Amino acid sequence: MPHRIEELLEVMRRLRDPEKGCPWDLKQDFSTIAPYTIEEAYEVADAIAHGDLEELKEELGDLLFQVVFYAQMAKEQDAFDFGDVVEAITEKMLRRHPHVFGDALCEDEVSLKEAWEAEKQRERQAQARHSALDGVALALPALVRADKLQKRAARVGFDWPDASGAMAKVEEELEEVREAVDGGNATRIGEEVGDLLFAAVNVARLLGVDAEQALRGSNDRFERRFRSMEKRLLEQDRSMNELDLEALEEAWEAA
User: Fold this and answer.
1) Any idea where the domains of the chain sit in the sequence?
2) pLDDT digit string (tens) for 181-199?
3) How far is CA 120 from CA 3, 131, 132, in A?
4) Among residues 70, 200, 214, 223, which one has the fewest Cβ atoms lying within 10 Å of its Cβ?
5) Which residues, other chains included, contact 112 with Cβ-Cβ below 8 Å and sequence gap of 6+?
6) Per-residue confidence (pLDDT) for residue 1, from 0 to 100
7) Answer CATH for 5-97 from 3.40.50.620, 3.40.50.1240, 1.20.58.1610, 1.10.287.1080
8) Are 211 and 203 within 8 A, CB to CB?
């Protein structure tokens, strides 16, 4: 295994060689590679969703290559290298699992989670983070980030006692969307729709539902049903473009 990692690191080094490297790889920097990293992470998730382990192996390789790419660029700046990355994550996992690698005892999942959060809090304090919201990545998908922000706020007591309050907030935000639409201000409409979505994530969180996964499920169901509708219409020699809304509604209900 170490030999294979070294081989990959050498491939990356040669790709970034100033004289004989790849022109495309040479002109990249941290910011230009970041979008590819996000894309590769989603492709890993897709492979898992498809249950395709061969595809997963390939996508994990692509994601690992992103890590190697960042490490090589950092090494060129004398900031850190791949070995430093491995050392840092190893030390972090050792710190966060004292019940496995130390003498701490965690009798159940609740105490385990409390110990995990306590260690993360110590890490945040060591990094001079002053807000409960510090460290929530800006590049996260919006639903995921909303959930994390809400959970961070909840840890310090800023939360609804149960989902009923959050549901009432959804109704309030929906009314504000209607008012914004009546006012015709596009900027305010966008803001109020955003508030409505944020409130919906709160409802999901308080009901123990992963908002991102819930929306993924809705997307999948819509896609399957829409494709089924398209197939039925095609079998009937009917075109969606030629149907009015009422006919499309009927086709949708039949799908």
Assistant:
1) 5-97, 142-254
2) 999 999 999 999 999 999 9
3) 33, 14, 11
4) 223
5) 99, 106
6) 63
7) 1.10.287.1080
8) no
